[in-house]
Amino acid sequence: MLIVAGFFLASCAATKTEQGGDTDAASASATSGGEITAGTQEDLIVNVGDRVFFEFDSSELTVDAQATLDAQAAWLMQYPDTNITVEGHADERGTREYNLALGDKRAFSVYSYLAQAGIDTNRMEYVSWGKERPEVIGSDETAYSQNRRGVTLVSN
């Protein structure tokens, strides 16, 4: 199975190169487990953080969330061609409709904060997943706290 996966990855890399894809050292090393390619989702996750967390039944940004979003805004300023989608999530408590609305408020809080920090709204979208895409499965505060989140995704 590993051999088949290796052949698949090798053929994908060869196809990308043959089609004139990225062949610079940073791109090559990112695919081989080396350095992270600047401006990518992986770069955002490792060097800045891609998510913020919310208190129960709240869309208000905490001090920690604001610090993460300040770092995200600075990162986005470095990569002006990078577009993002902000996802809003809720824990499993409450109705589907309520959590979709709460997720929307959370996503919009992140979106608004980044816009106020100078990020062009034409580079951003936001969406609510409510309780439909939990990060952690479970019915306890540990799971709930990880599921009440806003996630920034590089979308280009």
Question: What do you see in this structure?
Answer:
The chain has about 160 residues and is an alpha+beta fold. It has two domains: about 35 residues; about 120 residues, OmpA-like domain (60s Ribosomal Protein L30, Chain: A, 2-Layer Sandwich). About 50% of the residues lie in helices and about 15% in strands. It has six helices and four strands. A four-stranded mixed β-sheet has the order 1-4-2-3. Strand 2, helix 5 and strand 3 form a beta-alpha-beta unit. It is globular and about 40 Å long. The two termini are about 30 Å apart. The relative contact order is 0.16. The N terminus is likely disordered.
Task: Please tag this protein with its features.
156 residues, alpha+beta, 60s Ribosomal Protein L30, Chain: A, globular
Count helical runs: 6
Within CATH, the superfamily of the largest domain carries the name OmpA-like domain
Order of helices and strands: HHHEHEHEHE
Shape: globular
How is the secondary structure organized here?
Elements: H1 2-18, H2 25-31, H3 41-47, E1 51-53, H4 63-78, E2 84-89, H5 96-116, E3 124-130, H6 141-147, E4 149-154
Parallel strand pairs: 2-3
Antiparallel strand pairs: 1-4, 2-4
